[in-house]
Amino acid sequence: MERDSRVIVGLSGGVDSAVSAWLLCEQGYRVEGLFMKNWEDDDTETHCSAEADYADARQVAETLGIPLHRANFSAAYREEVFEHCLREFRAGRTPNPDILCNQRIKFRAFLDHARRLGADRVATGHYAAIGGEPGARTLRRAADADKDQTYFLYTLDQEQLEAAIFPLATLTKPRVRAMADSAGFANFNKADSTGICFIGERDFQAFLARYIDRRPGPIVTVEGDEVGRHEGLAFYTIGQRRGLNLGGRADRPGLPWYVAGKDMTANQLVVAQGHDHPALMNHGLLAGDWHWVDGQGPDQPIRCTARLRHRQPDQPGRLAPCADGRRELIFDDPQRAVAPGQSVVIYDGERCLGGGIIDERLPVERSLVSGAA
């Protein structure tokens, strides 16, 4: 792609997208910005936060002297991301809306909108790298291992990778902040956004209860003893400690409690004491809904590394296809808090191969595919 091509940068109001736009301007691209609104909410705090973000994006665009467009993708987000997440929560699973947002909104709705505006490509402030040739693009880790976001980007296909630019691929976060300060961006020291995008900093259970009915039931130990009451299985995830209200029990002194499982039929939340209780550990998993960056993925068992969550150190294991279309991943070492509904993302060195959605936690003795790689 010629350097004088037209690129629209998703300006979120944060420092990463701001420096991405500045770098592209410096490299000779014809740069424009676009501020996306992906969530409609009557909450005053959320509305004010969105307007503050837009003000930061506008200041960046004015400093760079580039146009700033504004688009509302909230209807698409609600239909394609939020409703999907609600279905998953109701089923007792733990979805990752940020991954779906990247696939359906930031690199689909945004990309389509940018093309309607006449852009050749889009850019974002994600920490990731794109390699390979047209038709055989690869998704690779960013230089800043702590900020690498390939875990959230594994669903991107060849068309989306061909159209995308990740200007921060070789930079560290401290360097990005220093560059933003030098460029005169007011948001150079702005805190990174945290939490689920449509919930933000609000209480998770209280927000979700606006959309999902509470179904209280017993909290039971792995031995079957009732030790408390839960508000509804949708509001808890495997490995969770906070919000169980089980601390300080005279009959159960000792280590803190963690969610170890859910019995959807009996409406029971299963808990165990101790961060590394055996009930929280699994040697393997079954996952479906696989997406491969190259479009097809391996058709034979492979050795690989995997992440069950963002920033988790790579975990080595063996991935093998199953007869039912899913894939089985057996880890070399037991893994804690494997949560159905979350993504498992597969790597070969620096290259992100793809990933799938965890269906089931799998003890090694229940392996569906025998043999070792």
UniProtKB/TrEMBL annotation:
The record marks 126, 342 as: Interaction with tRNA. Residues 96-98 are annotated as: Interaction with target base in tRNA. Pfam families: tRNA_Me_trans, tRNA_Me_trans_C, tRNA_Me_trans_M. Keywords: ATP-binding, Cytoplasm, Disulfide bond, Nucleotide-binding, RNA-binding, Transferase, tRNA processing, tRNA-binding. InterPro entries: MnmA-like (IPR004506), MnmA-like_C (IPR046885), MnmA-like_central (IPR046884), MnmA-like_central_sf (IPR023382), Rossmann-like_a/b/a_fold (IPR014729). It catalyses: S-sulfanyl-L-cysteinyl-[protein] + uridine(34) in tRNA + AH2 + ATP = 2-thiouridine(34) in tRNA + L-cysteinyl-[protein] + A + AMP + diphosphate + H(+). SUPFAM superfamilies: Adenine nucleotide alpha hydrolases-like (SSF52402). One of its GO terms (molecular function) is tRNA-uridine 2-sulfurtransferase activity. Residues 205-273 form the tRNA-specific 2-thiouridylase MnmA-like central domain. ATP binds at residues 10-17, 36, 125. Its EC number is 2.8.1.13. Residues 147-149 are annotated as: Interaction with tRNA. Catalyzes the 2-thiolation of uridine at the wobble position (U34) of tRNA, leading to the formation of s(2)U34. PANTHER family: MITOCHONDRIAL TRNA-SPECIFIC 2-THIOURIDYLASE 1, TRNA 5-METHYLAMINOMETHYL-2-THIOURIDYLATE -METHYLTRANSFERASE. Belongs to the MnmA/TRMU family. This is tRNA-specific 2-thiouridylase MnmA. It comes from Spiribacter onubensis.
